[in-house]
Amino acid sequence: MSGRLIRMNALETLRMISKTLNEGDNLEGMLQAVLDALLETTGIESGWIFLMDESEQQQLVAYSGLPAGLSHNECEPLRKGGCWCLNKYKNNELTHAINIMNCKRLEQATLHNLGSTNGMERHATIPIQAGEESFGLINVASPRIDQFSNQELELFETVAYQIGATVKRFRLFLQEQERTKILSQFGKYIAIMKQETDERRFLEQAGTVMLTFFDWSGVQLSYGTETFFNGVKNRHIHKVTIELDGEELSLMIFSSHFLKESESLIQDLMAHLSLHLKQIQLEKKQQMVVRTEERNRLARDLHDSVNQLLFSLVLHAKGLEKRVDDPRIQASVQLIHELGNEALQELKQLIYQLRPEGLEFGLMSAIKKYSELIGLQIEVQAKGLKALSEEREVCLWRVLQEAINNCKKHAETNKMMIGLIFSEEKVEVLIEDKGVGFELKEIKKGVGISSMLERINEVGGSIQIDSNLGKGTKIEIILPIK
Fold first, then answer.
1. Calpha distance 265→240 (Å, rounded)
2. Sign, CA torsion 372/376/379/381
3. For the chain, domain boundaries
4. Neighbours of 59 (CB within 10 A)
5. N or C end: fewer C-beta atoms under 10 angstroms in the chain?
């Protein structure tokens, strides 16, 4: 047995290393202590440890006794670039300790005059493993040793297995810590976002809130034709896409790195996005149903009570008109008769607006029927007719009714034009009359105009009203099909 092997006390080495690995709480500090102990016990001059991250990039986590050529500029020759032993590791060719192999990094240090290598040209390489998982490698080198003994290689492999088990334990611990942190942040994210009841604002704010709680550089959300981006884009992307009510919903995450825990988090975020959007849509439909039911109830009440009272008033006024001889009283009764008729006609229009019978046959039919009801000549032009969703069709009909009523009451004309141009994504509506017009700034705060603006904005559309005294009125509407 050589003097070098006599100096090697394998049992003492393993005891010291096992104690160090079990008592420490800082991985890099423990690996440095293990490497120092291994070199001191074996009498080997130099060593360094690489661990591989999730993207298979090496991290220099411990080193000792490096020659000047490798320690140059804070160990830059070891921290950057590839080498033969790492190539073997990445190609899954490094399954056991390799006794001696030439070192590309030592060769490059000599070639570029980075400093002395103390006569070292090669090293032994030992993979760091735990079961079937690999985490990195240990390199040990001595200018005095041309070949390590089998006993030494067995010791190196035993130490590497101990390190592998510790690295695995630490990474599992860090993953659990990260998972706990992510769950906590996810809970905070949901607590903030669950308050939002508007679909567009929800999509606009979701990315911003995600960046507040998660370590990402950018978030892009797309739903249908809308796209919302927050942060900064980079080359590392994780994307998840699902279909929600016939529309594509996608979440794209930009980050400098992705942990395994991030994958399940992104799936959970996508599930929350889709469920919350569905909830917003269902609540909107529920509100529409409630509004429709309330309109129908109000229309029934008006028809059964006020309508009948007005009708009785008109009949009594008509009968009284025939019995009165006094011209002054007769004129007053006649005025009551006329006002009653006018009120009755306006009430019928109001009831029709509250419960628009005939919309089930489409907008064209509804416009024609309503124009006949109020006595307005409306020229309707339509191109590329397409079915609108119930929500958008009702919205557009309410806005058209308001515009028709305004024309009848204020424009001092009995003619109007409505044009509709349908495309795959939108419908463009032009409403125009050649009446007396009005000053927009003086009437914009009125209930009718405000109602039109609110209705169109609620379904993601836009509306432009243009009017001047003596020049008529033009209303342009753009409404998404879905």
1. 11
2. negative
3. 3-175, 195-284, 361-482
4. 12
5. N
Q: According to DSSP H, which parts of 355-389 are helical? A: 363-374
Asked if residue 226 lies in contact with residue 203, where contact means CB atoms within 8 angstroms, the answer is yes
CA distances from 105 to 42, 51, 182, 188 (A): 23, 17, 40, 48
- Cα–Cα distance, 370 to 401 (Å, whole number): 8
Q: In this structure, which amino acid lies at residue 272?
A: H
Per-residue pLDDT of 331-386, as tens digits, reads 887 888 788 777 777 777 676 666 555 565 678 888 888 888 888 999 999 898 88
Identify whether the C-beta of residue 287 lies closer than 8 Å to the C-beta of residue 335: no
| Domain 3-175 of CATH type 3.30.450.40 | yes
Cα 136 to Cα 468: distance, rounded to the nearest angstrom: 78
Least confident of 155-159, 196-200, 308-312, 473-477: 308-312
Distance between CA atoms of residues 366 and 388, nearest Å = 14
Spatial contact of 394 and 288, defined as CB atoms under 8 Å apart: yes
Residue type, 325: D
Q: Which long-range contacts (CB under 8 A, 24 or more apart) does 168-173 make?
A: 168/130, 168/133, 168/135, 170/27, 171/135
Query: Which pLDDT tens digit goes with each residue over 402-438?
Result: 898 888 888 889 899 999 999 988 999 999 999 998 8
Class in CATH terms, 361-482: alpha beta
* Whether 106 contacts 84, CB under 8 Å: no
Quick check: 129 and 161 in contact, CB under 8 A? yes
